[in-house]
């Protein structure tokens, strides 16, 4: 799983470099918020996989809807003159860190580490 | 599990594309401007364009002035300069639209440092004059005394001394300029007028179409300053 994910990420980056597609200045902010939302779905997917909780539909629908919603919120915020994108930054930032923490726990657990709070069996 | 791999793979690819496109865009446009910065810069550019045009016009008119070298033309130019200088120095009576500010002072227990019984101190008048100047007043007079660059305002007992002449309350300030601008500059929150009204002074602002402001009447004697203009 890991190799696949990292490999695909690299493929995406390389493809992105060669695509003759540039984002005009205005949209840069919206794209970065969308990237944040996608990162959240990405880590959410990894966490779900590690917890054997994986749901395809949830992952894909979350990916698309969160990205669109984040970019849309930033756009509306710009029209209204209020920095609404900050809401997206906060929400997704918090979730990313939570997911990362759970992923880390999961990996450590799988590697056989015993939490120090558990008494040894006799 | 196959499906899990597929969707994670798709997401990773799309994420990678988005990241590198964003990165490339930020490279080429080293200054990613937000919409507000963009608007601000456009306004600045417009302003600079106007300045540029105005400067070009000024240059052509100055060139024309130089080109008219006849003695008559030269003395006309000198006359114009002299007029401007006299107006700026306050030596000529002027008239124009502006505002009249009248301040009625009630003798009450005054705060420390002032003439006993009055609320208006000399610095209040100075602040008012300053506010008027900042709002673009062309000429100002206080109780008939023209306020020029060397005018001083001070207290002596219950009199106010302006241009070395004593005046008494009520204080009438005349200012020539754009009436609406001057009036709203005086009425600004936190301005001198608000503070004076709060301590009991009765103030009235009226706009006028044709004010007449008298010239500075004292003799001009520079005992210490020497002209340095070595052109």
**Number of DSSP-assigned strands of chain B:** 8
Relative helix content of chain A: over 70%
Largest sheet of chain B: 5 strands, antiparallel
Q: How far apart are the first and last residues' alpha carbons of chain A, in Å? A: 37 Å
Strand content of chain B: 15-25%
* Class from secondary-structure proportions of chain A: mainly alpha
Average predicted confidence as pLDDT of chain B:
82
Stretches with pLDDT under 50, minimum 5 residues of chain B = none
Largest sheet of chain A: none
Q: Please provide the ordered H/E string of secondary-structure elements of chain A.
A: HHHH
The biggest chain-chain interface is: A-B, 40 and 29 residues
Chain oligomer state: heterodimer
In percent terms, what proportion of residues of chain A is strand?
under 5%
Rounded Rg of chain A: 18 Å
Structural class of chain B: alpha+beta
Q: Treating each run of at least 4 consecutive H or I residues as one helix, how many helices of chain B?
A: 6
> Which strand order do you get reading across the main beta sheet of chain B?
3-2-7-1-8
Tell me what you see in this structure.
The complex is a heterodimer of chains A (122) and B (231). By secondary structure, chain A is mainly alpha-helical. Helices cover 75% and strands 0% of the residues of chain A. Chain A has helices at residues 2-18, 28-50, 56-80, 85-110. In chain A, α2 runs antiparallel to α3 and α2 packs parallel to α4. The radius of gyration of chain A is 18 Å and the shape is globular. The mean pLDDT of chain A is 88. Chain B is an alpha+beta fold and 231 residues long. Chain B is built from six helices and eight strands. Chain B has helices spanning 2-28, 35-67, 71-89, 122-134, 179-186, 192-198, and strands at residues 94-104, 139-142, 145-146, 153-156, 159-162, 165-167, 171-176, 202-213. In chain B, the strands form two sheets. Chain B has a five-stranded antiparallel beta sheet with strand order 3-2-7-1-8. In chain B, strands 4-5-6 form a three-stranded antiparallel beta sheet, with helices on one face. The longest helix of chain B is centred in the first third of the chain and has 33 residues, at 35-67. The termini of chain B are far apart. In chain B, 22% of the residues are buried. The interface between A and B is medium-sized, with 40 and 29 residues.
